[in-house]
Write a structure and sequence with these properties.
The protein is 56% helix and 5% strand. With 165 residues, it is mainly alpha-helical. The protein has one domain (3-154): dinb family like domain (Four Helix Bundle (Hemerythrin (Met), subunit A), Up-down Bundle), CATH 1.20.120.450.
């Protein structure tokens, strides 16, 4: 198996792992905590979910042929709470957006990794764009897990190897 094929398969696996961690964390909190803002200028889990969903849709739709910052994306709006931003609605958007990413990654060929794509007008090799998004989503998934652990408190079920007691 070529290094390129291994990289593509591993990228899909890492994204799936991140998505799963976030969803397992979110499952441990109430709808109230999903929407809760801990301190001013911080984001709720809902806001982070909304932002990741918006970013996923924008970056991975027509990935090879259009700029990753789509003209119809309103990034600033992703950080504003709206009436329709219920847990159910946001999680549907989350799922649909992750599906775009997985469909796109699964359609890539090994030879695509060295092609150039743009994100916000900046050129990236495909492999660089994938790595950029892996780190971006990892950052936000970490925030989701941290907040969920905080909200769940003593009811938290570890997502990795639990501490010894």
């Amino acid at each position: 198996m070529s290094l390129e094929k291994i990289y593509l398969e591993d990228s899909v696996a890492r994204f799936k792992e991140m998505k799963g961690l976030a969803e397992k964390a979110i499952a441990q909190i109430s709808d109230e905590d999903f929407l809760r803002i801990v301190v001013d200028e911080s984001n709720s889990v809902a806001t982070i979910v909304k932002h990741i969903a918006g970013n996923l849709r924008s970056r991975w739709t027509y990935f090879l042929t259009t700029d990753g910052e789509k003209p119809d994306r309103n990034r600033d709006n992703e950080f504003e709470s709206e009436t329709e931003d219920t847990r159910n609605n946001l999680m549907k958007r989350w799922e649909a957006s992750w599906n775009i990413l997985f469909d796109t990654l699964n359609s890539l060929k090994e030879s695509d990794l060295t092609k150039v794509v743009t994100i916000r007008g900046q050129e990236h090799k495909v492999v660089e764009a994938i790595n950029r998004q892996l780190t971006h989503y990892g950052y936000h998934v970490g925030q989701i897990v941290f907040l969920a652990k905080f909200f769940a408190s003593s009811n938290w079920q570890s997502l990795s190897i639990p501490r010894r007691r």
